[in-house]
Amino acid sequence: MILEKVINKIEIQSEYKDFVDKYIYTILTEFKGKVHSIYMCGSIPKGTATPFKSDADFTIVCVDPQDIDYERLSIIKDRLLKEYPVVTKIDTIICSMDSVLSKPNEWGFWVKIICVCVYGQDVGQQVPPIKISPEFIVDLNTDTKEEVDRIHHSLSNASDHTMQMRYIKGYSKRLLRALYSLVLEDTGVWEDDFVKMKNAILTYYEIDSALVDYLYTCYLDSHVDVEEFLGVADEVYRNFENALHTIALFERYNSDK
Q1: How many CB atoms are located within 10 Å of the residue 36 CB?
Q2: Is residue 2 part of a domain?
Q3: Is 6 inside any structural domain?
């Protein structure tokens, strides 16, 4: 099965158009000549965002990610959040053109399948069709442990309640996506609707349903005890890691035949 793009048509709502235009203009002005293309994913480009509740997720593709200074990005983010309170949070991912083209099952998947191009030439069009397979699922999760460890550390050390809630929501979202990747061969499609994602996990994956329901609840409302959440998150990740290890062994066995 070949993965299809999540968002086929950009439908930014009127409440967000000025914000998106301002973000693109500011990034291009601040990092003049260093940006190849800019992408979005999530509810804003789909036209399903909820004012004062939805986040903005951007990806910047450039020749050299070191050309994009994260401190300057943070200043831009804070300035735009004050100017456009309709957006609750701005996340920006930086990757190189080489990573997109040389890692089709990782960065290529992200840009080609998850994101839509809102500025520049869409480098995702150069990525070959992505076939769902055990190899793809393993490659897709190459950085999952590193990301989970980073969020776990940040949440464990966050003392500000607002930041704790953001980390809990982000951590829940990351774990749900990781679990969903394990059932891609059953669904045949990358789902970004978290209700459908949760239901697919419960349908096709053997795990205590209470754990998945808890993560989904925390994704919707992150007002939970941090220690309790970390305990559940650790249990879910151990389950995921064991399942991914089994898939990797299966893929390796088949490739050695």
Answers
A1: 15
A2: no
A3: no
For 92, the token pair is 């920006």
pLDDT for 91-121, tens place per residue? 999 999 999 999 999 999 999 999 999 999 9
Please count the other Cβ atoms lying within 10 Å of the Cβ belonging to residue 238.
10
pLDDT value, residue 253: 61
Question: CA neighbours within 13 Å on the CB side: how many for 15?
Answer: 15
* Angle, alpha carbons 41-44-48 (nearest 5°): 115
Q: Which regions of the chain does DSSP assign to beta strands (E)?
A: 37-41, 56-62, 90-96, 116-120
Match 């995921």 to its residue by tokens.
240
- Residue 78 sits at φ, ψ, to 5 deg, of -65, -40
- Domain membership of residue 56 as a residue range: 14-131
pLDDT of residue 190: 95
Q: Which 3 state secondary structure label does DSSP give 165?
A: helix
Contact assessment for residue 157 and residue 149, using Cβ atoms and an 8 Å cutoff: no
Tell which wins on pLDDT, 110 or 253: 110
The pLDDT of residue 52 is above 70: yes
With respect to residue 178, please indicate whether it lies within any of the assigned structural domains.
yes
Provide the pLDDT confidence category of residue 137 given band limits of 50, 70 and 90. very high
Cα–Cα distance, 203 to 198 (Å, whole number): 9
